[in-house]
Structure formats: structure tokens, C-alpha cells
Specification:
OB fold (Dihydrolipoamide Acetyltransferase, E2P), disordered N terminus, five-stranded mixed β-barrel, globular, 19% strand, 20 helices, 22 strands, eight-stranded mixed β-sheet, 669 residues
Length: 669
């Protein structure tokens, strides 16, 4: 009797698993919370809090919490809230310390030079370990001393009037605040009273002297910038070339430099020490980071190198995103104001770009038949960094180099071949002074070649003359939401992309285009002031005699590209102000009192009143100018006195305010 077996197909029913949109990483959520707390405190403390400040964090938390289980909700909420509180508390303590100390007045000052730029018979220095009238005070000071013989590590003393850094009327306040630069002074005479015991400052000074005495001037200052991150002494033309070429980060001692040094040390020590090679490699990277003054980017790279080295030494899987987040937590815990610095935003922004997009771009290149894997990885990394840092560069510097992708393709692979020999031979020159000229011949030759290539390039095409404003927040939020780190299906992803594109376009147009009425943007750099008045058909700039050409260039980079219909000067020293205005792309320069200038190329007009495309201007004095437009009277007063009957008064020290007015209605925007 045959036995029959009947086979039944068993249908397996899979219950769909609702995976969260974003993987929970405790360091990442904590870092975002700390950044939010710092941002919130600084906005409330110094003004300017807007709804857009919450946009990025609200969208991120919405994705972190979906689908939301009670445990996940509690973990995310607690981590975010706890570190937001820590960030706000650390910022409050930092702000309190920044405001502490002596107020403005005449003081006997002593301090240690930590950085120095010498030119034209003077030294622009930053002093730490300050002593006022025999009492120690916190913070740092920017000072000008009448000598080119000042070096890092010198202890100097002088008597001068000391002024405090203030957020009121100072467009550079974020820079001063982030670097703890509380005071400014100009010393007419000074005395060098000693040398610091800090070995890194003394080494910095010795390196500067050795390079400048045994190399050509341009090569020496370029080598010093490459090794220390201090590019202020570089030739202005060369520095502008590298900035507009998009490779200025080469001279910032970025994570690239620390990573190159760490990788080279690991390679040297790997064979004799095996997994313990990480110890001397980290020690060498830490010493070099200390030599560079623990800058933001070098500190970030050191922490990440330590995490990577230790994880791999003990056979653990390395998580790049967790490492970046941990580095951000450590840096901001000790120096919360670093969040305001360009170095922090660019350094961590580049790492964020790598985290979000490098995998996607690498897989896209891998689909091209016979495409080299190494080239695919390099192109993916370059594109990822450029994509995320684009708005940060525009916000920090007022321009974005369209050449940066191509120039970085060329120079980044070559950086180890430049940086390591220059570092090695420079320190050999310090160790063996009689043979310094021989050792430095190699760095000089390499840098001569670099400068030849850079100066031959014409990097004239850059994106400039506009501000992204809230568009920056929209762009960065879109980068996170549309990246592979957020699990979205194709339909919602396309819908989100279209929404972000529309929102980005609208915010940028609103920030830069005058659709109706009149708009006034103001800025103040120290005692220098400027205001840009725009309608749909006119662009007029108003300046005083204190603002520099560099500051004017920075202001126009952020606000207006192209020519100006007019420049009005408000200054007791009209000749100096007119000479500055002559370098601007203006059709006409206006001043109140007629003076001989010898100016030929730009037309000059003198008088108490002037008309420019529907805008009516009237000088009340050399430092006062009234504007009548759209039924509104605006008085620009750069003499620090009260306005007389103006509907809107914009005095000196206006600090980056924006106003629009139309049909007699004035709005601050």
C-alpha cells in the first residue's frame, strides 16, 4: 500500500516592522541639544531670535521621534533637553565672564603675546594672561604696538586707553566673542619685560624667525600659515587668490593636517608597535594641536583620531557620526562660544556632509562601468563636503568660490606631499640652525611651485553680493532630511525635495530682492559705519570716514553685487572718506562741502541736497544726512547726537539692522 504525502504550502505572513526614520545615536542627539541650547541663549542674550532658529531642530526631532515608542520618546527628549540646558548654562557662564573685568579707561597693561602680525612698522597682536594696573584679569586683548620686533611668547607692558568689546554696533562681535577678545588698545610705546614659559609659544616665535630669515618673504609667510594656521601675515594678493580659489582651508590647520600627521605616524609605528602604534601617533597629533593653540578644527580632528585609533586598536566598529558628535560635545563643553566661529561651522559642517552624502555619491559613481573605486570615494567625499558647506561659506565670508570643487580635486591629494616635508624640514631647521638654509631649501622649492600655480589662476568667478539668511537653515535642513540617514520612501522624498526647493527660493528672494518700497541695511565695524539704501531701481551706499575698504568689501559681498548709483560720505575728514569711496563701483560720489581731491575717474558732486532715482537726500551737517522716500524721513547720524524729527533714526553703531518702509510704514526685518 502506497503512502501518499501531501505537501501544503505554508504562506508566511510578515508583519511590517515600523523602523524609525532616524537611528538613535545618543551622542548625536546630545550634540544637537547642546547646540540648540547655545544658540537659544546667544539669540536671547544678544537679540535676533527668529522662528527660523527652531526650524532645523523641530524637523530633526520630528524624524527622530517617528515612529514613537515611549522608551524612544523618553530617551530622545531627555538627552536633548539635558544637553540643551548644559549648553545654555555653559554659554551663560561664558557670557558672564566675557562681561566681567575692568571697564573702559586708562590702564597700565601687561600681557603675553599669543599671536602677532607685523607690517609697516607695527605689530597687531593678541595678548593673554592680562594684568591691568597690577591686577590679573580674564580674557584677551587686541592691541597695536609700534614695532616689527614683537613675537609670540613675548611679555609686553604699556600704558594706553583700553576699550571694551561690545555687541552694540559691532558687526564683528561674534568673532570677538568667540575668541574671548574682551579689550582693544593702541600702545604708543611699549616695553618687552620677559618671555613666556609656554614652550609652544616660544617654538612658534622661533619658527617664524627661522622661516623669515632663511626663506623668501612670500614662501616664509606661506609656510608659517600652513604650519600654524595663522595666515594674517600672508601677502594680501596671494591670500585673496587662495580664498577665491576655495582652498583657504589649507592654511587653517584643519582636520586634514592633523589627519595626515596621525596617518603618517601610524604608518611609521605600525610594524614595530602593531596595535599600540596609536599611542605615539596620538601623542604626536596632540603636541601639534597644542602647538596650533588647540584651534577648533585641530581639536575636532584630534578627538576623532583618538576615537578611531582606540576603536580599531581594540577591534571595535568605528562609528563616524558618533565620533563627530562626541568631538562637538567636548569642544562646546569647554568653549561654547566656538559655535559662532567659522572654524567650528566649517569643520563640523564638512564632517556632517561626509556623514550624510558620501555613501550615496560613492554608490552612484560605482554604477559607472570600470570607474576606479578610489576615485569614486574621493569624488564622493569632495562633493559631500561642498554640498553641505556651501551656505556656511556664504554666511561666514560673503562669497562662495565656484572653483572650489576643481581646486580641491587638485590640491587635497597633493597636500600630504607638501605638508609633511615642509613640517619635517622646518623643524629640522630649528633643531640644527647651522644647516637651516639647506633644510629649508626643500620647503622653499615646494612653496615656490605652489605660489606659481596659484598666482597663475584667475579665480574671478565667485557667488557673492547676496545673503541666504533663513535660506541657510532651509538648505541645511533639506540636506539632512533628503540624505540616506533619514528613511523616506520615494514619494515623500520627492515631495519634501520640491517643498524645500520652493521654500529656499522664496526665503532667498525675500532676503535680497526689493519688490516695493525702500530698504535699508546697516552695518558697523568698530567705529566705522555704512548703510545700503535700495529700491527696485536704485542702490545707494552711505559711509563714514572710519570704515575701511576691507569692511566695505565685506558688507557689499553680503548685500549687493554690481554697481552703485551713488555713494554719500558723512565725515569730518571728507577727503579720506572720498578716497575710500573712489575704490567702490559707484557712478557718483556725493559730499557736503567742496574740496579739491584730484579724483578723475568717478564724478564728484558737492552740495547740501541731492536727488537719485526718486530718493531725496539732504545734508544737515558733515556727519548727518536725511533721506526722504515713500513718505518717510530717515536720518543717518554718524555724530552720535539725537535725530531731529525723523520718522526713523539710524545712528552710528547700528550693528547690522535691516529696515523696510513703504507708504509711510516702517518695519524692522
Amino acid at each position: 500500500m502506497a503512502t501518499e504525502f501531501q505537501t501544503k504550502k505554508i504562506r508566511t505572513v510578515r508583519t511590517p516592522v515600523r523602523l524609525p526614520h532616524v537611528n538613535f545615536r545618543v551622542f548625536t542627539v546630545s550634540a544637537c541639544g547642546m547646540i540648540f541650547g547655545i544658540l537659544l541663549f546667544l539669540r536671547i542674550r544678544f537679540g535676533g531670535l527668529t522662528p527660523s532658529d527652531f526650524f532645523f531642530f523641530a524637523v530633526l526631532l520630528a524624524f527622530l521621534l517617528k515612529p514613537c515608542s515611549p522608551k524612544r520618546f523618553l530617551s530622545v527628549a531627555l538627552a536633548f533637553a539635558l544637553f540643551a540646558g548644559l549648553g545654555a548654562g555653559a554659554s551663560a557662564l561664558y557670557a558672564k565672564n566675557f562681561a566681567a573685568g575692568p571697564q573702559e579707561g586708562d590702564h597700565a597693561v601687561a600681557g603675553t603675546v599669543v599671536s602677532c602680525v607685523v607690517w609697516n612698522g607695527r605689530a597687531d597682536v593678541v595678548l593673554s594672561d592680562l594684568v591691568f594696573d597690577g591686577r590679573s584679569v580674564g580674557g584677551k586683548m587686541q592691541a597695536v604696538l609700534p614695532s616689527e620686533e614683537v613675537r609670540p611668547g613675548d611679555i609686553v607692558s604699556f600704558e594706553s586707553r583700553v576699550e571694551r568689546s561690545s555687541a552694540s554696533g559691532n558687526s564683528a562681535f561674534e568673532y570677538l566673542f568667540s575668541r574671548d577678545l574682551r579689550y582693544t588698545a593702541v600702545g604708543q610705546t611699549f616695553e618687552r619685560v620677559g618671555k613666556s614659559k609656554n614652550p609652544f609659544l616660544r617654538l612658534n616665535a622661533a619658527l617664524y624667525d627661522r622661516l623669515t630669515s632663511d626663506m623668501g618673504a612670500s614662501e616664509a609667510l606661506t609656510a608659517y600659515a600652513l604650519l600654524t594656521g595663522d595666515s594674517h601675515g600672508m601677502d594680501a594678493g596671494i591670500l585673496e587668490k587662495v580664498q577665491r580659489g576655495g582652498i583657504a582651508h589649507i592654511f587653517a590647520v584643519s582636520g586634514l593636517h592633523i589627519g595626515i600627521l596621525f596617518a603618517a605616524a601610524m604608518l611609521v609605528f605600525k610594524k614595530p608597535l602593531k596595535k599600540y602604534a596609536v599611542i605615539p601617533a596620538l601623542a604626536l597629533a596632540a603636541l601639534y594641536t597644542a602647538f596650533c593653540g588647540f584651534s577648533v578644527s585641530s581639536s575636532r580632528a584630534l578627538i576623532m583620531c583618538a576615537a578611531a585609533g582606540l576603536y580599531r586598536a581594540f577591534g571595535r566598529k568605528y562609528d563616524f557620526l558618533q565620533s563627530v558628535s562626541l568631538a562637538a560635545l567636548v569642544v562646546l563643553a569647554f568653549r561654547p562660544a566656538d559655535f559662532l566661529s567659522a572654524g567650528f561651522r566649517l569643520s563640523f559642517g564638512a564632517c556632517a556632509g561626509l556623514t550624510l552624502f558620501s555613501g550615496t555619491f560613492r554608490r552612484a559613481f560605482a554604477r559607472i562601468p570600470h570607474f576606479p573605486r578610489a576615485v569614486a570615494g574621493y569624488l564622493a567625499a569632495n562633493l559631500s563636503v561642498q554640498l553641505f558647506t556651501f551656505p556656511i561659506l556664504l554666511d561666514c565670508f560673503g562669497y562662495f568660490s565656484v572653483w572650489s570643487f576643481l581646486t580641491n580635486l587638485l590640491f587635497i591629494p597633493l597636500l600630504p606631499a607638501f605638508f609633511l616635508p615642509i613640517l619635517l624640514f622646518s623643524f629640522l631647521a630649528l633643531a640644527v640652525p647651522p644647516a637651516a638654509a639647506v633644510f629649508l631649501a626643500v620647503p622653499e622649492g615646494l612653496l615656490s611651485l605652489f605660489l606659481l600655480v596659484v598666482t597663475a589662476g584667475r579665480f574671478s568667478f565667485v557667488l557673492t553680493g547676496f545673503s541666504l539668511g533663513t535660506g541657510s537653515v532651509v538648505w541645511l535642513t533639506a540636506c539632512v532630511v533628503l540624505s540616506e540617514r533619514v528613511r523616506l520612501r520615494l514619494g515623500p522624498r520627492l515631495f519634501a525635495a520640491a517643498g524645500f526647493a520652493l521654500l529656499f527660493t522664496l526665503t532667498v528672494l525675500f532676503e535680497n530682492v526689493v519688490f516695493s518700497g525702500c530698504r535699508v541695511d546697516t552695518c558697523a565695524y568698530g567705529k566705522g559705519n555704512a548703510a545700503l539704501v535700495r529700491t527696485r531701481s536704485a542702490a545707494v551706499l552711505i559711509i563714514d570716514g572710519e570704515i575701511s575698504l576691507d569692511n566695505l568689501g565685506d558688507f557689499l559681498n553680503r548685500r549687493h553685487a554690481g554697481s552703485l548709483d551713488a555713494v554719500f560720505v558723512l565725515s569730518e575728514d571728507e577727503l579720506s572718506a572720498i578716497n575710500r569711496a573712489a575704490y567702490l563701483p559707484a557712478k557718483t560720489i556725493y559730499a557736503r562741502d567742496e574740496i579739491a581731491t584730484g579724483l578723475r575717474e568717478t564724478p564728484l558732486s558737492f552740495g547740501e541736497t541731492a536727488e537719485c532715482k526718486g530718493l531725496s537726500f539732504r545734508y544737515a551737517a558733515r556727519g548727518k544726512l536725511s533721506l526722504a522716500a515713500e513718505g518717510v524721513v530717515v536720518e543717518f547720524d554718524y555724530e552720535n547726537s539725537a535725530a531731529l524729527g525723523a520718522d526713523l533714526f539710524i545712528g552710528s553703531g547700528c550693528g547690522g539692522l535691516k529696515f523696510s518702509f513703504s507708504r509711510g510704514i516702517i518695519k524692522k526685518i
